[in-house]
Each structure stands twice: as C-alpha cells, then as structure tokens.
Amino acid sequence: MSPEASAGESMDADFTTCDLYDADESLQSLSLQLLNLGGRVRFTGRIRTISCYRDNGLVKELLNSPGEGSVLVVDGAGSVDSALIGDLIAASAIENGWAGVLIHGAVRDRAELARMDLGVRAMGSNPRKSVKDGLGQIDVPVQFGGVTFVPGATLWSDEDGVLVTAA
Ligand SMILES: O=C([O-])CC(=O)C(=O)O
C-alpha cells in the first residue's frame, strides 16, 4: 500500500502496520506486547491520552464524550492490579464514536470485550475495579514501551503491533 493510500485511513481500517512501517521507518513502533482484547483488531485514529493510576474516573468520563474516531491511550503506569475499562465503559466508547482504547494496564469483562466493535489493547485483565476519584491528567504526552504518545498524533494498531507518528 502506498503512503498516499495510508493518509486516507478511515474506519474501514484498510492498512497493515507492516506496510506502513516499510513506507515510513520514522514511525514509532511499540515494543510492549499488548494483547488484542477487543472485537476490532485493526484500528486507527487520532490520539487522545489519559495518565492515571488505578483510578478510571477520567477514563469513564472521556469515553462518555464524543470520540470522533479517536483512539484513547491510557497510561495506567503498567499496573494490572485493577481494571481501567470493562464492558460498560467500552459500550459507551462505541456509542460515542471512539475507534479504540490502548491501555498500559488492565481491563475486565474480556469475554464481552472480544465481542464488541471496538479496538482494545491492554497488558491483561483483572476482575478488580479501579476507584473513580477522577485523579489523573487528560491530553498530556505519555510514554511507555519505547513510544511517546502525543495527543493529536496518529496511531495504527493491528495483529502485528502498534505504530505512532513521530513525537
Ligand atoms: O466500571 C468500571 O470500573 C469498569 C467496568 O466494570 C465496566 O466498564 O463495565
């Protein structure tokens, strides 16, 4: 696929990360092996971010607002001690037009998430909920797995991995 074709990426996700990387080796590639847990394995969109720790108040709030095809990157500090989304929050993300959620942390309700039309990548799962105090930050650059995720950058995710436009 040509870089011109990739510039017109859309909801139908007509891309592969391997082709994108071959066309542009300046793309950042995530080394962290996040599991594909959503029903939509191939997804792309503009990045929004949240930084939080075992508190998903902001995640719930943001995914309940218009996503306009964006991908929410949640830096949960790599904690898998409690889940940052489950099927209810995922359902509100779909209703609000989000393309996907990529979590440096855990989810719950895996069986449901696998059936939902949403991109979901995370380190793993935990049935324990997070608190909802709303502590954390929205739309700040976050860094993990060798990638800097800047709000407004583009992310592509498929079976092979995750690419992000240069910071
Ligand atoms: O509410 C939560 O913290 C996560 C959850 O169970 C859901 O989204 O269904």
List keywords for this structure.
167 residues, alpha/beta, Glucose Oxidase, domain 1, ten-stranded mixed beta sheet, globular, disordered N terminus, binds oxaloacetate ion, 4-hydroxy-4-methyl-2-oxoglutarate aldolase, metal-binding
Notes on the structure:
The protein is an alpha/beta fold. It has one domain: Ribonuclease E inhibitor RraA/RraA-like (Glucose Oxidase, domain 1). Helices cover 19% and strands 32% of the residues. It has five helices and twelve strands. Strands 1, 2, 3, 4, 5, 6, 7, 8, 11 and 12 form a ten-stranded mixed sheet that branches. The protein has a two-stranded antiparallel ribbon with strand order 9-10. The chain is globular, with a radius of gyration of 15 Å. The relative contact order is 0.27. The site of oxaloacetate ion has 11 residues, from strand 5 and helix 4.
Compute the number of strand runs: 12
**What is the N-to-C order of secondary-structure elements (H for helix, E for strand)?**
HHEEEHEEHEHEEEEEE
Sketch the major β-sheet.
Answer: 10 strands, mixed
Question: In terms of structural class, how would the helical and strand content be classed?
Answer: alpha/beta
Report how far the terminal alpha carbons are from each other. 23 Å
By CATH, the architecture is named 3-Layer(bba) Sandwich
Q: Using only CA atoms, what is the Rg?
A: 15 Å
Task: Output mean pLDDT.
Answer: 93
Count helical runs: 5
Question: Percent range for helical residues?
Answer: 10-25%
CATH superfamily: Ribonuclease E inhibitor RraA/RraA-like
Provide the CATH top-level class: Alpha Beta
Overall, the morphology is globular
How many separate structural domains? Answer: 1
Low-confidence stretches: 1-11
Strand proportion, as a percent range, falls in: 25-35%
**Ligand inventory:** oxaloacetate ion
CATH topology: Glucose Oxidase, domain 1
